[in-house]
Amino acid sequence: MHKFLWSLLPALALAACAAPPRAGKPPAAEPPVSATRPAEPAPAGQAWSVVASHLSVRVFRDGPMQKLGHDHLITSDGLVGTIALGAPLTQTRFELRVPLASLVVDDEAARAAAGGVFAAPVPQKDRDATRHNLLGEKLLDAARQDTMRLSAESLTGGAGRYEARVRVSLAGRESEVAAPFSVTIDGDRLEAHAGFRLTHADLGLEPFTVALGALRVREDFDVELTIEARRGI
Questions:
Q1: What is the 8-class DSSP label of residue 223?
Q2: Does residue 118 have a pLDDT over 90?
Q3: 6 and 57 Cβ atoms separated by less than 8 Å
Q4: What is the dihedral of CA 14, 17, 18, 24, to 10 degrees?
Q5: Domain span at 161
Q6: In this structure, what are the phi and psi dihedrals at residue 22, rounded to the nearest 5 degrees?
Q7: What is the pLDDT of residues 79-105, one digit of tens each?
């Protein structure tokens, strides 16, 4: 499930490590979405449950002062949800959720494994500032909606490679994206993998900026997602 995700979380346009955390505004009048809107029912079909996942979002700095910032790696192992496996597989539907609280900014081990521009660790104060900005009102707005929701509208393809039209609910708004992904099924185990590029505009977001745009997050970001699901759990 490729482009659809993910996402994430990118929303992850948060390379704003150069800016210190700002005092948050008073919480929104309405309670978090998760408290007012029940989880959507599992789609009809042969039921599979996500038992393991790993989401990785690579966000890049931009602007004439970009040397003052960092490229950031956002990760989460918190994705959960259900898959209704159809026959044929293009009849498959899924409902997935990523709690925004599960997002980790610049984990040292994850950065070391990624290598390249991510090999060097990021100071803790910059990690904290970046996460603050990521979850804040101008980006993911976790106080308004604490979970990103992903649901399949349709699937096309075959021979293990598919594309899903995915409805993404994030920051109080909904978008629809095309998500290519690969999938393998071995008995009661299913594994899906996606690796793709999104833009902030795809999700109705604006890249974080400071110093009148002299330091900003690049419009596009890279997403990788792997999920493992088991039948009948």
A1: E
A2: yes
A3: yes
A4: 80
A5: 43-231
A6: -100, 155
A7: 999 999 998 999 999 999 999 999 999
